[in-house]
Structure formats: C-alpha cells, structure tokens
Design a protein that fits this description.
Elements (H helix, E strand, L loop, with lengths): L11 E5 L3 H12 L3 E5 L7 H4 L3 E2 L10 H25 L10 E5 L2 H16 L4 E5 H7 L9 E5 L2 E2 L2 H14 L3 E3 L2 E7 L2 E8 L10 E2 L2 E4 L5 H5 L8 E12 L8 E6 L2 E7 L4 E5 L13 H14 L7 E13 L5 E4 L5 E5 L5 H17 L23
Parallel strand pairs: 1-2, 1-12, 2-8, 4-14, 12-19
Antiparallel strand pairs: 3-7, 4-6, 5-6, 9-10, 10-11, 13-16, 13-17, 14-15, 15-16, 18-19
The chain binds flavin-adenine dinucleotide.
Flavin-adenine dinucleotide binds next to α1, α2, β9, β13 and β17.
C-alpha cells in the first residue's frame, strides 16, 4: 500500500549503493513517501549482476542456523507481493520462475545427506516431497540416468538483473534521484548529516546530499565506506563465479541442485531458455577474475547432472563478490551512529532477503516497529551494549 504521509513525517534519505538491497530499500522508502536520493556510479553492477536469483530458503538451510532460515522463509513469503507491486509500479512483468527446486542424489552418500536435509526441514515445518529417481525424471526428463533419488521443494527464483532494472525504473518514476557517484556518509555532532560524493570533481562540502537518514547498502565494500567513521563492520568479500548458457526453452522446469565430486552445483532455468549454472565460493579477497578452472568445473558438473546441457550455447562467465559476515547473518537497521542505517552483509542470500530488508529499513524510517523476524539481523548487534536503542 502506498502511504499518504504528513509532511512532518517525510524524511530526506540518502541510500549509498544501488545493488538489489539499496534499490529495494530506495523504492520502498519512496513508496512510503520519503524523499530519497541513491548514490552509486554503477547501479546493479555488483554481486546482484552475478546472482542466480534463487529464492531458496529451504535449499540453503544449514544446520545450526535457524535464525537465518526463519528470516529467509519470511522474506520468501514476501516475494510474490513484492514482485506484483513492482510490476504494477514499473508497468512490466516481474516473473517468479521456475516453480520448484529438485535436490538430486547421485549416489548413496548423497541420498543419506538429502534424507538428513529433508528431516531438518520437516522439523521446521517446511514442505518436502521425496521422489524416487523415476518420479524425478518424470518431472525433469533431462536429468541424468545416474540420479538415484530427489527431494522437491516449493521454491522459486527471479532474474536479479531484470529486478534491479525494474526497481531503478520504479524508483525514478516515483520521483527518486539516482546520482552516478561513489559516496560516503557525512557525520556531524555524532549524527548523520548526509552523503558526500567522493572522487574527482565531487569532493566539495557543497556537494553533500543533506539527509536525515543515510542507508549504507554497498555490499562487500561497506567496511571501506564506513571506515572514516571508525565504525568497524565484519563484512568480507566472498567470490562467486557463475556461467550462463542458452538452451532449448523446455530443457528444465525446476532449479536442479546436486553435489558432484564434493562440489555443489545448481542449474537455474529462466523463461526463454537461459540457464544459470553456479557457483563457486572462494575466500580470495577482492579478486574478480573469471578462471578457466571454475568454468571447467561448473560446465563439467552441470553436464554430469543434466547431460543435455552439453548442447547448450555458452553465453557468459561472470565473477562477483558476495558480502559475507562472520556469523552468516546480514546487518540490517540502525547502527550506533544516529541516522546511520546499515543494509549489508547478505552473503549468498541478498536476492532472497531483499523484500524483508527493504521492509525492515522502511519501517525504521517510518517510525514503525520492524518485523520481529529481523531481530537477529539487527545491525546494532555490533554496538557496545550501552549504545543499543
Ligand atoms: C555467483 C553468485 C550467485 C548468487 N546467487 C544468489 C541467489 O541465487 N540468491 C540470492 O539470494 N543471492 C545470491 N547471491 C548473493 C547476492 O548476489 C548478494 O547477496 C546481493 O547481490 C547483495 O546485494 P547488495 O545490494 O548488498 O550488494 P551489491 O549487489 O554488490 O551492490 C553493492 C553496490 O554498491 C555500490 N557501491 C560500492 N561502494 C560504493 C560507494 N562508496 N558509493 C556508492 N556506491 C557504492 C556498488 O557499485 C554496487 O552497485 C549470489 C551472489 C553471487 C556472487
């Protein structure tokens, strides 16, 4: 719902960073009636550009990380309305596809680990469908005959490039301003005063974008953006390489995930025949080179699971940096600096968590209580306890 806001409640907000997180926050804040400026020299070009776009809370569930699973399930539930509202605002469809994930086993060890994963999900009330190899291949005839069993999950995906373009267009159509500059927050007298463009030609006090609230959504660069404030942020870059293939449109109707030679691989089909194959996870600093070994392994593993992909056309190989935190939970909400809000550290799940992050940030700026399930993500967990509010 678009709020009709009293002028006194309207805040000036600067959002630094226009990946899927910054753009989702900016669009939601504009819809809520705030005056929003986004600053980014290359909107949509960070991790968002590489992401497969899986909205996959159950596939991604990890033992011992129930807080992340609850927030991920909550955000996945928000996606259909988020996409529908975005589509209405932007005047073009925002597709949620495919419908369903198949986790497939290639041997007895995989079957045992799938069974453990399925029990873990069922204990948390997730719907899980166990399939024989024959049933799995009835659903996906392109699966390798080596598949020995599968689990089907009700999950979907979006195309993050299309979503971030739609968010940017919808944001601008609502009167939002996008400035193509690098920026950093400005703090005066212990509270945020705005955002200052940095770099050639912009580093003047006059160029400060005044703001009551600054949202830092700069992905893996967030520690650098906040360094001048003496605000340490435990986020590090985690490299991911991914490839895109063009296949016949009906090659796959589900996201398929498997483990081949100890490496996880997924194939995400998009409407129209594109198949995204991912992804590596490499703790190698700020390197974004595409390596022959990664492309080889991704192709090998995908073809092992879906042999028909050997016929697909190779489109692209991409490497980007995920913003990873030490506890695997994003950092969302107010910080110990008044007016400074963090929306970063979404690791492998930034697309999945975009609607919930945008809702939490917008609720904070509106002065409403944020959804309870985002409590574990609170950025104030970084503050010394006496500074939390
Ligand atoms: C290979 C791969 C596959 C993935 N697959 C999935 C998936 O299937 N599902 C899922 O949910 N997630 C997935 N992810 C994770 C997801 O991509 C990230 O969590 C998400 O994109 C983070 O979004 P973000 O907006 O925080 O960061 P980014 O998309 O990295 O955006 C940060 C933005 O900040 C800008 N910026 C940086 N510094 C400054 C500055 N000083 N001033 C202004 N702007 C600045 C950059 O230009 C960039 O546009 C994947 C990631 C990778 C790498």
């Amino acid at each position: 719902m678009t709020a009709v806001m009293r002028a006194a409640d309207r805040r000036q907000v600067a959002v630094i960073g226009a990946g899927i997180i910054g753009l989702a926050c900016a669009w939601r804040l504009s819809r809520s009636g705030h005056a929003v400026t986004v600053l980014d020299p290359a909107a949509g070009s960070g991790a968002t550009h590489a992401a497969a776009g899986m909205i996959a809370p159950a596939s991604e569930a990890v033992f011992g990380q129930d807080a992340l699973l609850s927030t991920s399930l909550a955000s996945a539930r928000l996606w259909p309305d988020f996409a529908a509202e975005l589509a209405r605002d932007v005047g073009r469809p925002v597709e949620l596809a495919p419908r369903g994930t198949l986790l497939v086993a290639l041997d007895a060890d995989d079957e045992a680990s799938l069974a453990r994963h399925a029990r873990h999900l069922e204990r948390r009330r997730c719907h899980v469908e166990r399939l024989t190899s024959r049933a799995a291949r009835r659903l996906e005839p392109a699966l390798s005959p080596r598949v020995t069993g599968a689990v089907r999950l009700e999950e979907t995906a979006v195309d993050p490039r299309a979503v971030s373009a739609a968010l940017e267009d919808a944001f601008v159509a609502r009167g939002g301003t996008l400035l193509p500059v690098l920026a950093e927050p400005v703090v005066r007298d212990g509270r945020v005063a705005g955002a200052r463009p940095v770099g050639d030609g912009w580093a003047t006090v006059d160029a400060v974008v005044d703001a009551d609230v600054v949202v830092v959504a700069t992905g893996w660069s967030s520690p650098r953006v906040l360094a001048a404030l003496g605000h340490p942020v435990p986020i590090r870059p985690l490299k991911g390489q991914v490839i895109r293939l063009a296949a016949a449109p009906d090659t796959l109707t589900h996201t398929v995930r498997a483990t081949v030679r100890g490496r996880e691989v997924y194939t995400v089909p998009r409407p129209g025949g594109e198949i995204v194959v991912g992804a590596t996870s490499e703790d190698v600093g700020e390197d974004v080179s595409v390596t022959a070994g990664a492309v080889h392994d991704l192709l090998h593993d995908a073809i092992e699971v879906v042999p028909e992909l050997a016929e697909a056309t190779f489109r692209e190989a991409t490497a980007r940096l995920r913003p990873a935190t030490t506890d695997n939970l994003p950092l969302v909400g107010p910080t110990c600096v008044e007016g400074l809000v963090l929306a970063s550290g979404h690791g492998r799940d930034g697309v999945l968590l975009a609607p919930l992050t945008a809702e939490a940030v917008t609720a904070h700026v509106d002065g409403r209580p944020p959804p309870r399930c985002v409590e574990p993500l609170a950025a104030q967990r970084l503050c010394p306890s006496k500074e939390r509010s």
